[in-house]
Amino acid sequence: MFKHVFLTGPPGVGKTTLVQKACEALVSSGVGVEGFYTEEVREGGRRVGFDVVTLTGERGHLSRIRDAAGASHGRREYTVGQYVVDLPSFENLALPLFRNVGSADGGSRKVFVIDEIGKMELFSQSFIRAVRQTLDSSSCTILGTIPVPKGKPLGLVEEVRSRRDVKVFTVSKENRNAILQDILAALQECLKQTA
């Protein structure tokens, strides 16, 4: 039996939108939801980076396009394509969420959102550890997103994909409107087991 649900699919296909819709449905059915999602940041019509947004509405930088002024001031720089990852900002926002997740009051059913486990987030060793602990913890169900395999496999992503207790839905333009009900049904199944 699976206890976590992950969505995968090409960039821009609507994984985050589905996660948000699923969260709304869960909250209205009385399930506690915590965690974070990633949102693109646009200026003047072009994408300039990504923010991490917690489900309580806090927001912080995940990455920004490197600008001429953005010299790295001697610290180690983490980049994905043209984006410079702001690791301290990501960790400050995301890691505390994991600390609270196991400490749910015993009986409450909870879904923890991790959108996404991707290249940018995986620069954080603490994030990787926290995800593994949460996957193994019995107290919550994860609703997460992982990228489609491309280029060099990402260790933790492949680990998640191959876990027996994870159900992976592949989101496409064709199925993204219909698939929400399947995702919700799968989450309800998972929650029955953690309850």
From TrEMBL:
- Any one GO molecular-function label of the UniProt entry: ATP binding
What the entry lists under Pfam families is as follows: NTPase_1 (PF03266)
Q: Which UniProt keywords apply?
A: ATP-binding, Hydrolase, Nucleotide-binding
The source's superkingdom equals Eukaryota
Look up keyword ATP-binding and say if it applies. yes
What SMART domains does this protein map onto? AAA
Q: Where is the AAA+ ATPase domain?
A: 1-172
Query: Residue span of the signal peptide, if any?
Result: none
Q: Which InterPro entries match?
A: AAA+_ATPase, Nuc-triphosphatase_THEP1, P-loop_NTPase
Matching NCBIfam families, A to Z? PRK13695.1
PANTHER family, alphabetized: CANCER-RELATED NUCLEOSIDE-TRIPHOSPHATASE (PTHR43146)
Protein's name according to its UniProt entry: Nucleoside-triphosphatase, cancer-related
The lineage, from the top, is:
Eukaryota, Metazoa, Chordata, Craniata, Vertebrata
